[in-house]
Amino acid sequence: MANNKSSKKRVQIAERNRLENKSYKSAVRTLMKRCISACQAYSDKPGEKTQVSIKESMNAAFSKIDKAVKRGVMHRNAGAHQKSRLSMAVKGVLDSAN
Fold it and tell me: pTM for the whole thing?
């Protein structure tokens, strides 16, 4: 356990950062799942409304991934990998419908 003032403060800061990082990671996972489920809905029932929902969910996921990379929560290569994975899924669904 922390014995002096500075080490106690470092423990508090580390805990605060851990919670912020956890929320970013959770939000990225949620938005990615939302985008994948929108792709699934589009493949089940193609239409303009579902296509718009795919684009919106992909943009939201890309934005959150970029913010996580900028804040250092996620490595830039990991962020690029996730964005590539999402864009391949979206492109595959949209191309197969046309």
Answer: 0.86
